[in-house]
Amino acid sequence: MADSQIDSVLKESRSFPPPQAFIDNANYKPADIEQLYTSAAEDHTGFWAAQARRHLYWHQSFSSVLNDSNAPFFRWFEDGELNASFNCLDRHLPERADQTAIIFEGDDGEVENVTFQQLYERTCRFANALRSNGIEKGDRVVIYLPNIPQAVVAMLGCARIGAIHSVVFGGFSAVALRNRIQDAEAKAVITADGNYRGGKLVQLKQTTDKALEEGCDCVETVFVYRRAGNDIKMTPDRDIDWAQAVADQPAECPPVNVESEHPLFILYTSGSTGRPKGIYHSTGGYLLGAICTCRWTFDLGDQDIFWCTADVGWVTGHTYIAYGPTACGVTQVMFEGVPTYPEPDRLWAMVKRHGVSVFYTAPTAIRALMRQGDQYPQRHDLTSLRLLGTVGEPINPEAWMWYYQVIGGERCPIVDTWWQTETGGHMITALPSYTETHPGSVSKPLPGIAADILDESGQRVEDAHAGGYLVIRKPWPFMLRGIWGDPERYQETYFGMFDALTYVAGDSAQRDHEGNYRILGRTDDVLNVSGHRLGTMEVESALVAHQAVSEAAVVGRPHDIKGEAIVAFVILKAGAQADGLADELRSWVAEQLGSIAKPEEIRFTDGLPKTRSGKIMRRLVRSVARNEEITQDTSTLENPQIIEQMQAEEVR
Ligand code: PRX
Prior knowledge:
By secondary structure, the chain is of the alpha/beta class. It has a domain of 123 residues: ANL, C-terminal domain (GMP Synthetase, Chain A, domain 3, 2-Layer Sandwich). 31% of the residues lie in helices and 22% in strands. The protein is built from 21 helices and 30 strands. The strands form nine sheets. It has a seven-stranded mixed sheet, sandwiched between helices. The two termini are 23 Å apart.
């Protein structure tokens, strides 16, 4: 976040108490929330045990609530057994058999309603197909699908037989997909021929084929869902048509009940090294978080039509599409396309068309749509909305106010939810019938979430104007359980700074005298571009893998819509020509990582500011990228003259 943005956020003094009309119709009334806070404060583990008994169907109930004897490797409800797909589907039947589970709208506007009974049957058939193809409990399955109901079927189908899914966002490149398949040692990949987004064809099968060209012997089967009807190559003895695979399968599939700690999924996310980390979550604890937060934060109930605009390829799509709403038996909208196609009123048209009551999206989308003008939302009656949410990055007060006034008609509370891939579900957020909200603030920690802010020495930061490390001081059921295949990295990254009980989020934050938090940004070398995490080192590794590049430094600078934009400083190898290379490097990065990682600006330079020990001084690089005056001490630099040269370089 830029300093000017921080300033404007800090000067923000507007506050919005929950509207009485919202409270009157809320499922969780202020007294219910008060009760949750009180009981969580009295007995942390007792509170979570009670929630787990209340919200989950256990095949075998648990007696051990939290085992922290081997911190930070925590185990929740460890002698309990359950099945996640049973909790999302079977337990709603037959009562909700004909209720719509998913209102799906395709990129081209086609609408399909999938009932809970249909979702159940499709999941069972697909789970049987997985099993017929040798997939068993504990096997990893990579899912590379568009944002369509079949992605939910694939995820729940894996969960039904205890297979561990790892969804890879459809915008990731062949190389990124390959790295994830290899790291997870996936036995199968589930993909589609292709799909349309914003009217453009995305070639998923072609990318999958390319990913599998090298070093993916672990993959025995590729399931291919026909979505776009584009021409694809099917590899005999490996590729199976989804429709054929499920054709003769029974519509029942007994769920495999797993230990609560059995991994439900792996999801790769960026860290501060070049290698993405496979965050994995447990079955019982994770699902409990998905349900509790859907109920508390989104106040979801039978009257709601919920819409989370995320893609299932991100954690938001896991918790607030595939698992949370289904486990709560709530009808939701799922959308394959983009907000601006065919016109910038698409989201608002859909809110009206499907009667959406609770709407959850990212600040980057809000800013982009705000810029298009009020005429687009004003074309549509948005009075079905009762609650709005945001996630993924700090929201600037201007965008918050626009969301509140123009979209919510000053009627809908806004819940700004802070959480991470690692936390599994919301951690710090307003609760809509209860919390007075302030634009730009994520409000307070949820009941049972022991958030705090510490300084470098581990002391609590009391000063409302000082920032510090955002930490969680007690384990919670839906926290990550590890980094796939790398327990040491898990321990070091998240628990290495203070002690084995204190989870370090990697964000800096501030807390006012009322206990409201503001997120200031990352403390590590992770960028947040359009609400998506990207490691600077990942982009650097991709750049130096190009034959013309000798060295690269990647930093972020504030961007009006994306939040942060990527700026790359590149040193070329001797003899390489800069002319025409910037675009080539952009395409190269897109090929290595995916389009979201394309640098906005590339600047060629002869050197980078380095300390005498050879470390790149990122803060200086950042200042140059932001065209700031250099006020830092540069006397420890090996090559202080390089700064001026970098400042003078043409931006490409
Ligand atoms: O920096 C915080 C930012 O997004 C990071 C987590 O990214 P990811 O794991 O991709 O998950 C995104 C969706 C949960 C955090 O470390 N972040 C997330 N939500 C907010 C936020 N920053 C400010 N305000 C938020 N509401």
